[in-house]
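User: These chains co-purify. Model them together.
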Amino acid sequence: MISRHWWRIIPAVTWLRRYGSRELSSDLVAAIIVTIMLIPQSLAYAMLAGLPAQVGLYASILPLVAYALFGSSRALAVGPVAVVSLLTAAAISRIAEPGTEGYLGAAVALALLSGMMLLTMGLLRLGFLANLLSHPVISGFITASGILIAVSQLKHILGVDAHGHTLVEMVSSLARGLERTHGWTLLLGTGATVFLFWVRTRLKPLLRKRVGLPPFAADILAKAGPVAAVVVTTGAVALFDLDAQGVAVVGDIPQGLPPLTLPPFDLGLWSNLAISALLISLIGFVESVSVAQTLAAKKRQRIDANQELTGLGAANIASAFSGGFPVTGGFSRSVVNFDAGAETPMAGVFTAVGIAATALLFTPLFQALPKATLAATIIVAVLSLVDLGAIRRTYRYSRTDFAAMAATIFIVLGVGVEAGVVTGVALSLALHIWRTSRPHAAVVGQVPGTEHFRNVERHSVVTSPQVLTLRVDESLYFANARYLEDTVYDLIARSPEVSDVILMCSAVNVIDASALESLEAINARLADAGVTFHLSEVKGPVMDNLQRSPFLEELSGRIFLSQYQAMETLAPDTIRRARAASAA
Amino acid sequence: MISRHWWRIIPAVTWLRRYGSRELSSDLVAAIIVTIMLIPQSLAYAMLAGLPAQVGLYASILPLVAYALFGSSRALAVGPVAVVSLLTAAAISRIAEPGTEGYLGAAVALALLSGMMLLTMGLLRLGFLANLLSHPVISGFITASGILIAVSQLKHILGVDAHGHTLVEMVSSLARGLERTHGWTLLLGTGATVFLFWVRTRLKPLLRKRVGLPPFAADILAKAGPVAAVVVTTGAVALFDLDAQGVAVVGDIPQGLPPLTLPPFDLGLWSNLAISALLISLIGFVESVSVAQTLAAKKRQRIDANQELTGLGAANIASAFSGGFPVTGGFSRSVVNFDAGAETPMAGVFTAVGIAATALLFTPLFQALPKATLAATIIVAVLSLVDLGAIRRTYRYSRTDFAAMAATIFIVLGVGVEAGVVTGVALSLALHIWRTSRPHAAVVGQVPGTEHFRNVERHSVVTSPQVLTLRVDESLYFANARYLEDTVYDLIARSPEVSDVILMCSAVNVIDASALESLEAINARLADAGVTFHLSEVKGPVMDNLQRSPFLEELSGRIFLSQYQAMETLAPDTIRRARAASAA
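Assistant: Joint model of the two components:
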């Protein structure tokens, strides 16, 4: 009997015990398809991160095994992905020059830091931190990153040198290089791009309608487009010796399994990379969980967010110790894995074996692979991340959310990816504090003929000139505590005849220490002004909390169970008037 | 006729039009008392900030006039205060050495930056940013600052040299200097301290009970204690030539009105000081508004928080242009001003005239004033800021609030004042996000014999095995959107027989764009799992917003006006069972 404790840390224990031949064959088929798809992606995203091609392969071996052991999703396929590779490039190019030993070391350190952060968050159940990334910020970030990545790859399509981290820098650098465009490279690059676009948009309907393939087979064949592009363009280069003509190729990739690497233990480097690692961790986690939940829901399985943190953390640590770079769950390859019938994370282990075999045996085949083809696969993949519809929808739905989204997009494009995310998060928080710092609050009066009390501005109600009742439709906490004070002081400054103020707490679920201090201040200041302060309809848990403070003893007035009872006691005349109004 | 527009920017226009001889005499009396109290405070807080004594006087002249014109409080007395002086010292000692030209310039630049920030926040109505400072963080910060300030002044009482920014540094530096304690200084310093403590704790009751003075007169006389200490110890030094014996004195203070200074326009310096200026602005503002509201409430007057930002901004800019340092509203001197009968901000203008006369004529009198006396006034003043009771109350009331408070105190004492505030704010936000990221949510069922639906775990209710209803007691926004998704997916993963899910929105006041995306994801994923998704009891404004999105068209199920109607339509059997249960 395996103890429950073990199961919690290593979910693999559960599914491995029921692993049979049916699962084996399903997982094998899925793994073969994902392996074929993952090879060009691994090489391409390593290039995007400014790293040697083999690093992409290394990041697609051990991390998959680690995730299979510790992750909670049955179908998630981890490995290098576009957005995280862009963030990696942004972070480590601040530290070292691409192509140097230091650059590679920084990539490994980044994977290690990110892995340790994810693991820590998983163990301490800090997954809620990902909530800081609101949907508009994430969506704006992904769209802007997609544009930035696509533009950054144009230099490979044109066969020119270009640099820059912002859109303006990249475009102006490209424009300066335009006249040195390399003909053969351009031909291969645009050919591959047009072909991949055609595959993506036209081939699938064609295969389904004309050839009559079932949807998932059509989908998988369409996603094999990059493999065809790789084979054809590599063949062309090899056949016509185009690399001698100046077509940039991937070149020699060392043959062999990933080396066991000890990540650099350098506190200076680590503190330099800490913020970047945190951003990569959170963004990778949010994207990955979203994919995993989409797939799990289809089979009514569940994803444990904290277990996902552990799984992704283990994957990144494995990446660091095998010469890789930061990884996370990829959207399109997870969908392929799911559609191809993967039953358990064993499919990931088989994929890792496939990539390991590639690294060991087949790397010479990629020697003549043009970089322009990899750039074309990246461009076509990331342009599907650009979601202009989401921008329009957000604009129509909420201007404050749109403000956070627009700021994220502009800062990502104009300043940098990290600054963009940080700005977006800060702005989301500030807008949230602003929004909740002025909760809906209303002066209420009695609806004649009932025991209900409603907003005086919306309903025809009976009020007392001496007893003023304020209802606040929100929990009271630090962001709105001062607003509550302001509102009460304003009300009594405007109504000199008021002798009693009742705060109706029917919608108050929490009163935190700041709000408690504000209530104490309101009580004391109203007493100074000769006004008695009461509460009504305080919920049970809130009352329990208040009893642990001296507020109830200091309160100048009383706590009433119901608002009606409060008015019966403090303003019996008004109750009588309401009765008369209802009789009339 | 003065236009309403003018009135809004310069509140002084309103009260000046009704200014008469009654107001004049009240304001004059209050001004004389406040001037006498403010002189030693100005000198002391300049010393605390590491600045020459005259800078304290300069900061108590033009800023008072500027506040009188632009502020909204009738009784607030602005000028140098302890906590802001400590923050000033912490900020500018990073930039330059005390006693240098650069140190003075940095103090002036800090006042200018802080003034511009306050003014900008006032004009853009950004006062809500002060809500980021929760009560526990402010209270912890003030207590820790009080301790830090008191310890920092011990060196003046002992007459030794000591340095350090953290409690440990200060105490160990003091301990090393202890053997060089200067006898005469120690005598004067402890004498003044003991006297001031006696005045503060014993004199007032004595004056009231034995002498029979009215409360406010006793209070004001007790607060004149520092003046007596200044007069007596200065006299002693002058008489016995104690400065020649090694007692440190204030020394020569240049005679004259504040010079018109142009604050250094140095973008490097400004960006170095920006965060410090922001903290000083927010903390000064929060403290000042709290004092102003306490006093205004007593006369049922109102404080406009945004106008207060403008007033404090103007005061700090005036300080910068007259060679001063950051100022804000002081608690004890505002109370004295109010109790002494100040009717309008004109009292502040008269106080400014009094301090200007002092700067012009009487500075030679302070030549022999021992620094130990100033240190004693600071120590006695700031120890009243230390509120250990608040720590205990917060601990009993809420552990999360206490965590934020404790972190603030430890970081202020152990690392520094600015790091303490930033940590406290970050922790408050994180704890708030954590708290609201898991709103109260309940599966509900029908209470037999009623149309009410209640939590299945608390009430005996009737539920349907096919139709599951979830009620969330919180607005849906980015911090809890993913929790909502998790909760729904968990529920359907655990209940394979469920065919319909109803989200009961009776407590949802807002659905932001993140929550909308989550609802769309829930809808799509439930549809994948063959489950229909419905909403019930959606509030009017929330519905208006949803209509601006494609969600309502995509929704697999329906929107029901009431939960009862939803169950009538989707699970008529259950309604019948509930009727039978109530009949039985």
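Chain B has two domains: 4-388+397-429, 441-583.
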